[in-house]
Amino acid sequence: MTENPGQLTFGAGDETGDTGVPGLLCTAGWLTAESCRELLSEIDSEPWSTELRRRVQHYGHRYDYGSRSVSADHTVSAAAPLPHWAQEQARLLVQEGIMETTPDQVIVNEYEPGQGISAHLDCVPCFGPVVAAITLGSGCVMDFSHKASGARVPVRLAPGSLCVMTGPARYDWRHAIAARKSDPGPAGRVPRGRRVSVTFRTVLKAA
C-alpha cells in the first residue's frame, strides 16, 4: 500500500488548513485514492458488527456503548487484535509524530447516506489525549460544538484525509455528524455516499 502522509506539523496552520477549532488538525491527502481503495477493501474483508444502527468493527479493545468504557479482559469483552492494515497506519501515526504512543484501540464506523452520530466527546477516562481518524469512501461535514460557549463550526472531512483531535478539540469541543443525505457546499448541496471512518486511540485505563 502506498501512503502519502503529506505534511502535518503541529502549530503550522497553513499546512493543515484553518479548521476554526483549536487543536483540530486536518490533513487532506493523507492517503492516496489508490491507498483508500485498498484499505477499504481490506476493511470490508473483515466481519462487521451490527450492534448499532450503523455497522462497526472493534480492534484491540471493545468499547462498551452501554457502560461507556473499555475492557482489557478479552474473556469478558472480546475484540480482535489490530489487523495488519491497522498496525501499518498506527505505525505511521507514531512515525510522523502525530501520536507519541502506538494506538492500541481502533474502531471502524460505516455511515450510509442519511446516517449520522450525535454530538459527543470520545470517552475522556478511557482514551488518551490524541484521537486520529481517517475518512474513506465519501466525504462529509462534521459539526464541532463548544461545550461552554455553544459555538458551532462545520468541518469538511474529505476522502483520504486525516483529522487529529488534540487539546481543546479533544476535550472542549463535541463532534457530530448530522443524519442527512447531503451536506451544504460552496456550490450547493453535496450528496453523500458510503463513508467509512477509521479512528485510532490509546486506552488509558481498562476496567
Low-confidence stretches: 1-16
Oligomer: single chain
- Tell me which CATH architecture applies here: Sandwich
Rounded to an integer in angstroms, the radius of gyration calculated over CA atoms is: 16 Å
Shape: globular
Percent of residues in beta strands?
A: 25-35%
State the distance separating the first and last CA atoms. Answer: 36 Å
The percentage helix is 10-25%
Count of strand segments = 14
Give helix and strand order, one letter per element, not per position. Answer: HEHEEEHEEEEEEHEEEE
CATH fold-level name: Jelly Rolls
Number of helices: 4
Supply the CATH class: Mainly Beta
- The count of domains is 1
Strand order of the largest sheet: 1-10-7-14-5-2
Q: Which whole number gives the mean pLDDT? A: 87
Helix/strand/pairing category: alpha+beta
Question: How does this model look, in words?
Answer:
This protein is of the alpha+beta class. It has one domain (24-201): Jelly Rolls (Sandwich). The protein has 4 helices and 14 strands. The chain has helices at residues 13-16, 33-44, 84-95, 167-171; strands at residues 24-27, 56-59, 62-64, 69-71, 105-111, 117-120, 131-137, 140-146, 152-157, 162-165, 173-177, 182-185, 188-191, 195-201. The strands form 4 sheets. The protein has a 6-stranded antiparallel β-sheet with strand order 1-10-7-14-5-2. The protein has a 4-stranded antiparallel β-sheet with strand order 6-11-8-9. It has a two-stranded antiparallel ribbon with strand order 3-4. A hairpin with a 4-residue loop joins strand 3 (62-64) and strand 4 (69-71). It is globular and about 40 Å long. Residues 1-16 have low confidence and may be disordered.
